[in-house]
Write a structure and sequence with these properties.
The structure is a homotetramer of 341-residue chains.
Chain A: E1 2-7, H1 15-30, E2 33-37, H2 42-46, E3 49-51, H3 81-91, E4 96-101, H4 103-114, E5 119-123, H5 139-159, E6 163-168, H6 175-184, E7 188-190, H7 198-210, E8 216-220, H8 229-233, H9 248-260, E9 264-268, H10 280-298, E10 304-309, E11 312-317, H11 318-321, H12 330-336
Parallel strand pairs in A: 1-2, 1-4, 4-5, 5-10, 6-8, 6-9, 7-8
Antiparallel strand pairs in A: 2-3, 10-11
């Protein structure tokens, strides 16, 4: 039995932990061979692969990123993509694939299974927005990094009587903002799921200043003010197209400053949130996902994704897994509001 | 409405986060008064209390330990203890209690409820051994600290061709050993749930050395060798009664050294695992527990404990909560064995 | 004897450690009284002060920011400022001042000494650009935070074949860029002291990609391209005047992307660098500065600043201390070039 | 030109950073070849070596330990050791050696230079006890790790009204205890340089409890009570000979408990202090040491060691470098006493 492994989409702490667990269990328990396809779906499309043995995965558990590199290539947008993949798998003698990735990567995995290729998926999304699993690895690391930054910003804010707006990842789902805001003791948390009222934000900020503390506003990159969508979405871009860098965080710091007369600054955490060594939580989750993905392959149970339900790793249909975005429910957001201001 | 809060048992990162959430929601949403009872059940026994207002909990989210301090006092082992508590609550006008603690503290909470005092429990155990909740706060922090130590020890072990035995907390349940061992890439993990065979441990250690790596053996303080129970349990104590300090970790390092001829050292992580600022994960969990404990009090739903089930906070009967110890299931342990050696 | 303490300028990890050491030694060894003036020189100008006793400084060693808060108020720009200060000191019975701050704060300290007020200075600059001391506290913390961010970004860059530009603090001196770039294994380090040649930067970046690694470019916020000064300095500001947020880092990422055809992203670390708990190094240095500042006051040795020379804390004249900016010497920068590309 | 590199003695964070800097500068600037000798002086004794190219040092900057591994082999205690080394160097065409190590390693380096082998030394001692340099790499990392542990222990101590004794490294010099104790806000610091009076320690501990705080006592492993030397030195060993594990820390916790009636616990940090990724400070220092060692070799300036003096890297004679142990001066220790109790 020869199994191919690939990682697709944005990188995420824990990818290497999955790869290590897959290779270790596949070899030690089942005696399989492994090939690592490089750069996401580009690997099986072009045949770009490397052998993956025990030595290759010895030292990678704690490393961020992915030793297989990644891409956003979609074989269904490439002419004859599926046939090319089938040919490469046949040429390299690969019997099954383990695809580690987010919505896009798993969407391809689903279609390929329908088209006769045996694929098991491992969910990966730093944003925690995949519906079929309680959590994915990478999310805890991102929340930890954002929380540590918020911890640091509190004292700066207070020493200077400043409002600090911290823009975190989350284009469509506010999980990182919600969790890091709760963990960091934010005075306001803003998420894409609920358009915010700037007057309300300003009143929380002023209430916070009145208590002799300085407000920290945690805002997801995809959060938007009520009625203010167009303004931001059509905002000027710099030469490199970075709307987001001067995006909602900076815009909001400006609004707060002009409405309260207090100094306000924005910090955009950016890529720091998704790199580096995974937290212990993410290493354990990624490792368990890898071990269970091997079980699914061993069972010939393709078209599924491993998922966390409570403390168990289960299998869910890939069709179900990618059906809808998991956003922050209104009750979770409202629960947090007790800490605002 | 006036609500009392107390923390009992061993300290645990996240206790202050619970207290903050309780006070914040109780005051902001319900307009309650709060008193903090000091030193666990000793507080309501003796009337040792302090007011708890919003200002008292402003700065405590990130702090380890508990601002209410703790003790292991059991009012059911004190003459007339329950009556004293009832009198103190009556004198101080306290209508309900929120008790944050482990098995012992919650056991008292259950009995007090049966005896007519309204108590809501919040589970706390760094060892993750309470059956009625998926996780408790403090566990993630302990695992993170142990994992960071293991990360550091790898390079020392390899530079010196040494075996390193890391003794972590877990007298009856091996959760910290299992998770930190998985996250830290341990070569062997030993837990109280399964008596280990020293020959087997030695063969994993030797296999690891053969690969040109150095073994890290993570051992829970309560793990025991097959047939070796008495030996360890009746072992000499130092003047201060610290059997554990020279406990299983040191014993095992000695065995490995004498059987393999390789240098072996033990590191006993000890109290470092339970102190200091909680991880983001634990802060969120502790905060949510606190918010939901207030809901239970508001509902007059006493004799329950808040618990994590998947991603939800639910309520379980205190009787159920303390019914049995949650140990590492055999399949979780066997799953990890693929990484041994 | 009654001594006033104040903190001026931008906040910096270690300010509280100085305050603690000053108060502790002043009270324990000399039996002095202390008043803390709030908000930098604004405190002695307006009389805004608080008593500072042992209890006030018990818990502050590890906290970032300053319990005395800060400002950039300059009493020499206030009508009758010096007389107001003298009056406040007389009214409050303050015999001497310990002023903790950077170039501006210490410049005022110098003038006040000339005008007859007894002041001892403690140097503080996160940028490490004060000439009369080997290092100041806060710098090590800033370098550590920037280095940790760079560590995290390496794996993201490599997983995606991207160039990542990390903009760190340093408007006039490139010390943070130099040290964090060396510590983080940057492929290019750019400092304000030497205008950079974009073609040269691009060739280092391309060389790095050729080695199958991804380049990290660390750039001080004040670094500028050769001949490109005006362009950046007259660049568009957003509504809030944040030129820097879309400053040199973003500009450079854009240039690299358009010239190499590789994805390039900028990360602006911003205020995260100056907040939060100080490193052990900074806590020790700040503590020693505080202890020696008390010695200077006890000796009646005013108009001086404490400074680090090798492993010793010495005193230097304030006039000398603020004479010139300490920039990165050309040989230190050239030494680092061996790691470029 | 072909240069050999080796690392001797106990491992220390930063060794790999030195190796990387040496190889990078030697190749990029001078075009030299490098061989890495394995396991300290055992490498040139037996010819056990590996080539060291740019690729070998690409990824090692952040890694603790040493890719060349280490030993305590002393060729002057091996029959014909020096001749063997000369033969190996001749056989492998090695023109000069860079030896990274502590007192023992550098002592051999000195003798070999006297015996006609060109050696440049790089000082390494986690204990900071080498007289000829202000600091060595590894020390800052050890202090940071110990300080982080002390930070964590404060809240545990206070929650339980306990005294906690933290035993840190330092057999002959108390630098780690002094710096981590200052940085961690210890209530008592005990160093090998000054035998301590137990009554005095107990009175500091009691004073601390009276203030409603819990004492943290930081003790170097080599610290001893007045008149109590024999007792400890002849103390029972466990089967593995670990006197230290139940050493001064445990002994002192016992004394404190029995004399104050308060719970007291000991934590022995052990090997965790010397492993893992170096701090930014240590990476910069190690890197600069490596760069300057190459300069010395290029100048043919053998028999010297690179050293830190203030902010400069200088060269000192190896004879001078190993002349005497640098211990904590009495005035540095007394300065810290203001924080005791």
């Amino acid at each position: 039995m020869r199994v191919g492994v690939l990682t697709g989409g944005g990188d995420c702490p824990g990818l290497n932990a999955v790869i290590r667990a897959v290779v270790r269990k596949g070899i030690e328990v089942h005696g399989w061979d492994f090939v690592g396809f490089r750069n996401g779906w580009n690997g099986p499309l072009t045949g770009d692969s490397r052998p993956l043995g025990l030595n290759d995965v010895e030292d990678i558990l704690t490393r961020g990123g992915t030793i297989l590199r990644s891409s956003r290539t979609n074989p269904y947008k490439v002419d004859g993509g599926v046939d090319k993949i089938k040919q490469v798998l046949a040429d390299q003698g690969v019997d099954a694939l383990i695809a580690i990735g987010g919505e896009d990567t798993l969407g391809v995995a689903k279609k390929l299974t329908d088209d006769g290729v045996g694929v098991v998926g491992v969910p990966k999304t730093i944003d925690n927005d995949l519906g079929a699993t309680d959590y994915t690895f990478g999310f805890d690391t991102a929340v930890s990094i954002a929380t540590e930054a918020i911890d640091r910003l509190h004292t700066t804010a207070e020493s200077h009587h400043r409002a600090l707006v911290v823009e975190v990842m989350g284009r469509h789902a506010g999980w990182i903002a919600l969790h890091s805001g709760l963990a960091g003791g934010a005075s306001v948390i803003l998420v894409p799921e609920k358009h915010f009222n700037v007057d309300q934000v300003v009143s929380w900020v002023e209430r916070r200043f009145e208590k002799e503390y300085a407000p920290i506003i945690v805002v997801a990159e995809g959060a938007l003010p009520e009625g203010g969508e167009e303004k931001l979405l059509t905002g000027e871009k710099d030469a490199f197209g970075h709307v987001r860098l001067g995006g909602i965080g900076t815009w909001l710091a400006d609004e707060i400053a002009s409405r309260t007369g207090k100094e306000s600054r924005a910090v955009v955490l950016g890529h720091v949130q998704r790199g580096g060594t995974p937290t212990a939580y993410d290493r354990v989750l990624a490792t368990r996902f890898g071990l269970h993905a091997v079980d699914a392959v061993a069972d010939g149970d393709f078209g599924v994704m491993v998922a966390l339900k409570g403390t168990d790793i289960v299998r869910v249909k890939l069709s179900e897994a990618t059906a809808e975005l998991k956003t922050v429910p209104v009750e979770r957001y409202e629960e947090a509001e007790v800490f605002f201001g």
